[in-house]
Amino acid sequence: MAQRTVRTVLLVLFDDVQSLDVTGPLEVFTGAEQYAPGSYRVRTASLDGSPVRTDSGLTLVPDEALTHARVPHTLVVPGGRGTRRDSPELTDWLRTHAPRAERLVSVCTGAIPLAAAGLLDGRRVTTHWAYCDTLARDHPAVRVDRDPVYVRDGSVYTSAGVTCGIDLALALVEEDLGRDAALTIARHLVVFLRRPGNQAQFSVQLAAQTAQREPLREVQQWITENPDADLSVEALAARALLSPRHFARAFRADTGTTPGRYVDRVRLEHARRLLEDTADGIEEISRASGYGTPEAMRRAFVRALGAAPAEYRRRFRPLITR
């Protein structure tokens, strides 16, 4: 029997680190080690080996000091308030040692110190949606993608905010050990949805602004709860007791998008969730999501996601208990 490759994973710790950015990937990789003994060796390290206090007040005791740590296979830099303070020592360590790792990973705003060390120049990366503009402004050589849950550019992997580190860690385990391993760990962690990297960082309801006017807020809620209803501008305007023209203008002013685009995004998100979370047929999902026919849903998926519904389900649906 061939000897299993042991991949060392080193998580960098510092004061005011986001605790879930650390513990999320930590649980995934240690779970993978339990699933496949000898697959990973997971370590944590702070600059001098001293305990650190997370930005939620939790104290973490590292295994070692970064100055004594061996070069890992996978180096993980988490985010948190600590990444938004200048740390010349951490920047220098990353600049010197991080390029020697086979795989460089950031979670949330962990991309900021990596960018400060010049390690993301020319790379396509992502980070927490609230700091994408800051990263792009401060580091113009970095190509910031604001939408995905995580991004891979060569040997550099970056993820969006907080829980997205779990999604990225599961994707790395799948890359290393296969899909069955990743899905088994997801089930053990009771991760309801293992999101693909190209999924948006947040839902339509979070991405769009909430309307200031109560009738429009009620319409937004109605759209979400009834994607298979008549959601034409005329029908929605009638619910808001406005003329279609006044409704369309007010909706865009309050939400930053048109009623039609908002409906399209809600229906797409609803269909994706049904494909990911249920065993319902494509025709049933197309009706429930307001597309009417499988062909209409297929066109919407190909246009928005570059994959037909059946292919999307095959690639990205998590484990369904049958």
From TrEMBL:
Q: Which UniProt keywords apply?
A: Transcription, Transcription regulation
Domain of life the protein comes from? Bacteria
Q: By what name is this protein known? A: AraC family transcriptional regulator
For whether the record's keyword set contains Transcription, the answer is yes
The cross-references to CDD domains, in alphabetical order and at most eight, read: GATase1_AraC_1
Give GO terms: molecular function aspect only: DNA-binding transcription factor activity; sequence-specific DNA binding
Check the record and name the Pfam families matching this protein: DJ-1_PfpI, HTH_18
Its lineage reads: Bacteria, Bacillati, Actinomycetota, Actinomycetes, Kitasatosporales
**UniProt organism field:** Streptomyces griseoruber
Domain HTH araC/xylS-type stretches? 217-315
